[in-house]
């Protein structure tokens, strides 16, 4: 197969060799247009993402502010796809109606992290112990929240897809209540 021609014949006469005429009969497969120059490809990549997404029309500051306010109010048309639908609205209301340990991480965890840098070994020991206890309590509360939201949503919305609903609820619970978008519609302790 990989031999040179011999005195008796050529390499094409050997078994397993590809005849030269078969290569000429195959059509060339091109893309039908010339390749772009490098500077053209780089210039196309430099276009800002918002400009690419809206095809040249950039939203004004007032339009962006109006869209953000519509998201805060919870208008369905202004929400991203992950927040739309009655199941996600129920999960948001379920999270907003209960007290969550995950929301306490910043107010309680940050001072404990600062106490870890105190020179006293006793204070550092108790700060680390409390910080680990807080983290484990948040983990268990988040697991229970995800389970409870999925169970309540399955009972209220039979046949609806619940994929990712538990994680959606946990991530909302981790946010500070005032910073949640859309803003909470129910008070704490209210029945959902």
From TrEMBL:
Transmembrane stretches, start-end: 101-119, 125-149
Bias (Basic and acidic residues) ranges: 39-63
Region (Disordered): 1-63
InterPro entries reported for this sequence: DUF3043 (IPR021403)
Compositionally skewed regions (Polar residues) per UniProt: 1-11
Keyword Membrane: yes
Signal peptide: none
Keywords: Membrane, Transmembrane, Transmembrane helix
Entry annotated with the keyword Lipid biosynthesis: no
Protein name: Integral membrane protein
Source lineage: Bacteria, Bacillati, Actinomycetota, Actinomycetes, Acidothermales
